[in-house]
Design brief:
Number of strands: 0
Oligomer: single chain
Strand content: under 5%
Radius of gyration: 57 Å
Distance between the termini: 172 Å
Shape: rod-shaped
Protein name: Z-ring associated protein G
InterPro entries: ZapG-like
Organism: Pseudoalteromonas aurantia
Subcellular location: Cell inner membrane
Structural class: mainly alpha
Keywords: Cell cycle, Cell division, Cell inner membrane, Cell membrane, Cell shape, Coiled coil, Membrane, Transmembrane, Transmembrane helix
């Protein structure tokens, strides 16, 4: 009987050892898996930090380029403003007409006969210059007589 008991104990111990080994192996596998996940998370975090660092560096470069462009634009506007202000004060304004045209206009004004104010009535009832004295155009007496002759 001792042999059967020893065999039974050996089988029971083998089965118990198998389950204990399986549990230990599962825990070991979970632990290795968790360690791998932790390492992967750490590398992803480092990659994310590197990406953010690269992004901030490129943003800084773009901002410095933009600042340089604004500085150039500002200096260009200042130079243009100074040029316009200094040219305005140093150069006389350009005449509307050329020199020859201005001379011809002055000559024609000098050659015109001057109107005499003493020809106009001094009482203020003078007829405007664009009015014609007497009858003119369709208001002349001859035309109205011609029309009456044609009608009869």
């Amino acid at each position: 009987m001792t042999t059967i008991v020893w065999l039974g104990l050996l089988i029971i111990t083998g089965v118990i050892g198998f389950f204990i080994g399986a549990q230990v192996t599962r825990k070991q596998l979970k632990q290795t898996e968790l360690e791998q996940q932790a390492i992967q998370a750490q590398t992803e975090l480092e990659q994310y930090r590197q990406d953010v660092s690269d992004h901030l560096a490129s943003t800084k470069k773009l901002m410095s380029k933009m600042q340089e462009s604004y500085t150039q634009l500002f200096s260009h506007v200042e130079r243009t403003n100074q040029v316009l202000l200094t040219e305005k004060t140093t150069h006389p304004s350009e005449p509307f007409f050329s020199k020859e045209t201005t001379e011809q206009l002055h000559a024609s004004l000098k050659s015109r006969p001057e109107r005499r104010r003493d020809n106009q009535r001094s009482d203020g009832s003078a007829q405007p210059v664009d009015y014609v004295e007497g009858e003119s155009g369709i208001f002349t007496g001859e035309r109205s007589e011609n029309k009456q002759a044609n009608i009869s």
